[in-house]
Specification:
six-stranded parallel sheet; about 35% helix; about 675 residues; about 10% strand
Length: about 675
C-alpha cells in the first residue's frame, strides 16, 4: 500500500490497477473464443457423464481439446484472462470427479488408462477414456491446473520438473561494496536517481552496521537466498505517479524504504535480482511475454520475492494460476498494513471488508509495513542517519532555540483548517521556516512571515534540521520518515491529536485501504513508542494547550535520538531474522503439549505440571526452564504471558508492560493443557 493509495478512489473504478475490466478487447473474435471455450467445457461435461455410466458412446474429441489450448494461447486480452482462470478452476473441480470415475473403472477392471497402448485394438469407450486421462495428466503435471492424480506413479517426477531438486545451500557473506547494487538499480527515472543518492549517502553507515552484526552473529551460518525484488509501483504499467513528483515535493517515503530494503538484502549477502518493469519481471520469472497468464512449467527460480500490491497484481496477470502455488514465497511491502479481515477473501466478501487492495489470502505476516502498526503484519521499516558523538555535541551547541521548521513540502499540505490561529501563536515565539516546492512564484498557501527555502536537497535539509529546535506537523502526510529524521537531528516533533481518530470510516485518505486501524495522531509510532520529551501530541484547536506546548518546547533540552530499530544495524538484524526464520511454505505443525518432555524425566513419560511458571520480580509468566521447548521463532524463551484487563487487547496489555504482542506464540497458549496449573 503506497501513500498515494487513497487517491485512487477518486478515479473511475475501471482505472484502478486492481479492477477487472468488463470490456473484452478483440470484440467479436474474443467473444467467439469464449463461446468456443464454453462449447469445449460442455463436451468435457458430457464425457464425464458418459464415463460415470461407463457407456460405450463417447462425445470426447481430442482435436477439440487441442483447439481449446490453441485458442487460449492466441487470445488473452484484458478481462479474458480472468475468465479463463475462472474456467480453469472449474476444470480443476471437474478433474477430481473424473479421477474418481477413472479409479472406479480401474477397480472394476473395465479400463487401464495407465498401461493401455492405444495403437492396439480397443473399444471407443476405452480410447476416449485414455484421451480424457491424458488431458487430466497434462493439466495436473504440466500446467498444474488440476490436483495430482492419485493413480499416477509419482515416484519418478516428470522430466520437466526434474530440475526442482534443490541446489546445495550456499553461505551468505556480508558485503560492504555497494557498486554492484547501484548498477542493478538502473537509471532513467528521478525516483531511481533519488534511491541511488540515498544508497551512496548511507554507504559508510551500512558498512559499519554490517561489521557490527557480523561480530554479533559470531560467524553463524546464514543461508544465501535467491531473491527477486519487483518494485511494482515504479513500473510504467502501474502508471508510476511517483517519479515525476520527486523534484516537486512529492512523497518520498516509499522510495526511502525500497532503497533501504535493497541495500539491506545486498549487504546481507543474498543473490539479488531487481525488476523495475513488467518485461524484467517476465524475464526473471521465466514466463512468456504478453498477458498469457501461462503457469510456470518449472520451479520458481527464487526463494523469496519482495514486491508491493501493484507488483502482486502484475504477477497474477503474468503467472496465472501458478501464483497460488508460489505465493508463500512472496513478501508484500505495504506502508499502512493489511488486516486479516481484509486479507481473507471469503471473510472479506461476506462481511463487507473487500477493497481494491486486499483479499490475497496470504499469511498476514507476509505483509511488511513501514512502522509497527500491528503484530498481525511483519515490521520491515527503513533507516535514518545515525550521528556520531561529535556530531551530537555539535548539534546541541548550535541549536537555535527559537527556530521551527514546518513538515510539508507541497503547498497543498498547508491548506489546513484553522492553521492561521496556531501558526500565529507559533510565530509569536519562533521564527518559522518552510521547505515548500515552487517554480516561479511563492505559494499563496504559505504565510508571508514564513521563511520558505523551497525544496531542499537532503544534505541541506539535514543542516536546517540540525539548527532548528522544533519540527512541526500539520496533520499530513501520515506516518512518514521525516519526523524520525528530525528527532535524530535533535528536533522536538510537535503534531496534532485527532478527535476522533482518522480511519477508513471517516477520512478519504484511508478509504479503500485494507485496514480499519484508527490513527490517533499524524504519527502514531512517534507518539506511542518515542513520546516525550522528543514528541509532543496536542490539540491544535485548543489555543491554550498549543501555546503551553510551544513554551514547554523552548525550555526543554533534548539530545538527538534514534530508536535502534531504525538504525542500519537494527534493520539488518531484523531482515536477517525474517529471511532465516520466516517460512510460510512449510505447514505449521500442531502444538501437542502431551508430546513434550521434562528435562531429567524418563523418555516417553507424559509431562505433568505447568508449562508456564511465574518469573522472578514480574507479574508475567514464562516458559518453564525444565521443559524442552519445541522449535519456534521467535523462540519460546522470549515468551512472556500476561493477564490483560477486561476489554484490553493483546497489543495494549503487552505495550503497558513494555512488551510486544507476538501472534506467533498464540498456538502455544490457546489450549487448556498449556494453561493447566
Amino acid at each position: 500500500m503506497t501513500s498515494l493509495g487513497g487517491q485512487f478512489s477518486a478515479k473511475r473504478l475501471g482505472d484502478s490497477p486492481f479492477t477487472i475490466r468488463t470490456e473484452v478487447l478483440g470484440g467479436v473474435e474474443s467473444r467467439g473464443v469464449l463461446r468456443k471455450i464454453s462449447d469445449m467445457l460442455e463436451v468435457i461435461l458430457k464425457r464425464m457423464d458418459s464415463l460415470s455410466k461407463l457407456d460405450n458412446t463417447s462425445t470426447t474429441d481430442a482435436r477439440r481439446l487441442d483447439e481449446l489450448s490453441s485458442a487460449i494461447n492466441r487470445f488473452q486480452p484484458a478481462g479474458l484472462v480472468e475468465r479463463i482462470q475462472a474456467i480453469a478452476q472449474n476444470v480443476s473441480n471437474m478433474a477430481i470427479r473424473v479421477e474418481q470415475i477413472l479409479q472406479n473403472s480401474m477397480v472394476q477392471g473395465r479400463v487401464d488408462a495407465c498401461t493401455l497402448d492405444i495403437r492396439t485394438r480397443a473399444t471407443p469407450s476405452t480410447v476416449s477414456t485414455v484421451q480424457t486421462a491424458h488431458f487430466l495428466i497434462y493439466l495436473s503435471e504440466v500446467e498444474w491446473f488440476c490436483p495430482p492424480l492419485a493413480w499416477r506413479n509419482h515416484s519418478s517426477p516428470p522430466i520437466q520438473h526434474a530440475q526442482q531438486a534443490k541446489a546445495p545451500k550456499r553461505q551468505a557473506a556480508f558485503r560492504t561494496d555497494l557498486s554492484v547494487l547501484l548498477d542493478q538499480v538502473g537509471t532513467g527515472k528521478e525516483s531511481l536517481s533519488f534511491m541511488k543518492r540515498r544508497i551512496r549517502r548511507l554507504a559508510q553507515q551500512w558498512a559499519t552496521a554490517a561489521n557490527r552484526l557480523d561480530a554479533k552473529l559470531e560467524q553463524r551460518w546464514r543461508d544465501q537466498k535467491k531473491i527477486l525484488v519487483h518494485v511494482g509501483f515504479l513500473t510504467e504499467e502501474s502508471g508510476d505517479v511517483f517519479s515525476p513528483k520527486v523534484l516537486k515535493g512529492g512523497p518520498l517515503g516509499e522510495m526511502v524504504q525500497w532503497a533501504d530494503i535493497l541495500t539491506a538484502l545486498h549487504v546481507l549477502g543474498h543473490n539479488l535480482k531487481i525488476s523495475m518493469s513488467v518485461k524484467e519481471l517476465q524475464g526473471f520469472l521465466g514466463v512468456p511475454p504478453g498477458r498469457g497468464s501461462c503457469p510456470l512449467t518449472g520451479p520458481l527460480p527464487f526463494d523469496l520475492i519482495y514486491t508491493d500490491y501493484h507488483g502482486l497484481q502484475q504477477m497474477k496477470q503474468h503467472m496465472g494460476l501458478s501464483l497460488k502455488k508460489h505465493k508463500c514465497h512472496i513478501r508484500v511491502i505495504d506502508t499502512f498494513g493489511t488486516e486479516p479481515a481484509y486479507n481473507h477473501e471469503e471473510y472479506a466478501t461476506l462481511h463487507g471488508y473487500r477493497t481494491n487492495w486486499g483479499y490475497w489470502n496470504l499469511n498476514a505476516r507476509q505483509y511488511m509495513t513501514m512502522f509497527p502498526h500491528t503484530p498481525d503484519n511483519s515490521f520491515m521499516g527503513f533507516v535514518s542517519e545515525e550521528l556520531n558523538e561529535t556530531e551530537k555535541r555539535s548539534i546541541q551547541q548550535n541549536k537555535v532555540n527559537s527556530m521551527a521548521v514546518v513538515y510539508g513540502k507541497e503547498a497543498s499540505m498547508w491548506k489546513v483548517q484553522g492553521k492561521e490561529g496556531f501558526l500565529q501563536i507559533l510565530h509569536r515565539y519562533m521564527e518559522v521556516h518552510g521547505t515548500v516546492y515552487y517554480e516561479t512564484q511563492r505559494p499563496p498557501e504559505v504565510p508571508a512571515f514564513v521563511k520558505n527555502h523551497g525544496l531542499l536537497p537532503q544534505n541541506e535539509l539535514q543542516q536546517l534540521l540540525r539548527k532548528a529546535k522544533l519540527f512541526i506537523g500539520f496533520g499530513f502526510p501520515y506516518e512518514g520518515p521525516a519526523p524520525l529524521e528530525a528527532i535524530a537531528n535533535g528536533c522536538i516533533f510537535l503534531q496534532p491529536k485527532f478527535h476522533p481518530p482518522h480511519s477508513s470510516l471517516n477520512h478519504e485518505f484511508f478509504r479503500g485501504k485494507p485496514t480499519s486501524r484508527e490513527v490517533s495522531s499524524q504519527h502514531p509510532y512517534a507518539e506511542q513508542y518515542i513520546g516525550r520529551p522528543h514528541v509532543m501530541t496536542v490539540d491544535y484547536n485548543n489555543s491554550l494547550e498549543f501555546d503551553s506546548a510551544i513554551r514547554e518546547i523552548m525550555r526543554t533540552k533534548v539530545e538527538p535520538y534514534l530508536p535502534y530499530e531504525y538504525t542500519c544495524e537494527g534493520m539488518l538484524e531484523r531482515v536477517h531474522s525474517y529471511i532465516q526464520h520466516q517460512d510460510f511454505c512449510a505447514p505449521e505443525s500442531p502444538f501437542i503439549p502431551a508430546n513434550l518432555s521434562r528435562q531429567g524425566s524418563p523418555s516417553g513419560s507424559r509431562i505433568t505440571g505447568p508449562l508456564f511458571v511465574p518469573l522472578p520480580n514480574s507479574t508475567a509468566l514464562g516458559w518453564a526452564s525444565n521443559v524442552t521447548a519445541p522449535p519456534a521463532w521467535p523462540p519460546l524463551s522470549s515468551l512472556r504471558l500476561l493477564v490483560s484487563q477486561e476489554g484490553q487487547s493483546c497489543v495494549e496489555a503487552c505495550h503497558s508492560a513494555s512488551f510486544i504482542c507476538e501472534p506467533a506464540h498464540f498456538r502455544f497458549i490457546n489450549n487448556k493443557d498449556a494453561l493447566h496449573g
